[in-house]
Every structure is written in structure tokens, then in C-alpha cells.
Amino acid sequence: MNTDTPIARDNQGVGNAGLFFVCYSLAMRGWNVLPTSRNAKGIDVIVYDRNGTKFVSIQVKTLSKRSAVPLGERPTCHMAQVVVVCRLSAGKGNPELYFMKPSEIDACRHQGDPTKSKAEKSAFWLQAKDYENFPDRWDLLDH
After folding, report:
1. DSSP 3-state assignment of 32?
2. Strands 45-48 and 69-72, bridge-based pairing
3. pTM here?
4. Structurally, what CATH architecture does the domain formed by 11-67+77-103+129-142 represent?
5. Residues 6+ apart with CB under 8 A from 4
6. What pLDDT, in 10s, does the model give residues 3-46?
């Protein structure tokens, strides 16, 4: 990856960059990769092994910098077997990948500030210090 390449600044561009980097990384590790419809909630990628005997559903959450991961008012992470946080880093080489099980997200997710608007009160998020405990856990795809 050319480290001089600018990082997309709009949400759709950032999301697409992360999704396709994750797909590329999975394909390079021998998985057959099927991205789903881009505006669908929940599962972003379905992968299966070369023998067609193992299937894994993945949700990708992409960030353009070190920040919290918004999970929404009703986190959809439970639809996928694995959640990958892809953090793009302008000028710092390849994006960083963090792999979590939905149960791990449940254990460390936070809910909104009660002093904020209704939407902000009920929204969930995952702090950077929490997902950073799960770098490059490719082994989650094997279980």
C-alpha cells in the first residue's frame, strides 16, 4: 500500500476502504470472500475455506483514525461470528485490524451519556483502548 495515498474522508469512502482491505487480507490468507450488499445491516462479509466446509460471517467497522467505534442504538454485532475493526492510518502503512467476538464486544461496550440527546443516551460504542486489546486475531476464523 502506498503510504502517500490520502485517506477517504466521507463515511462511505472510509467504510468501503476498510471493507475491501479486510476482503483483500482474507483472500490473501486463502479464504473465499463474499462481500454482502453495502447498505445492509449486520454481516458485511461471508468467507469460506477452500474445501467449502467452514463458513464465517464477519462485520467490519472502519475508522479513519484512532477513535471509538460507534455501535448504534441496537448493536448488530450479534449477527456476525467475528467483528473486525479496521483502522486506517494515513501515511503509516497498512490499516490495523482488530478481531473480536460479539461476546467480547458485549463485555466492554459502553452506552451513551445520559446528559446528551435521546439518541446519544441510548447509543453504544467501543472505546479504542478496548478493541486495541485484540490485534490481528486471525485465529478467530479457525474456531
Report:
1. strand
2. unpaired
3. 0.84
4. 3-Layer(aba) Sandwich (3.40)
5. 91
6. 445 555 677 788 889 999 999 999 999 999 999 987 677 799 99
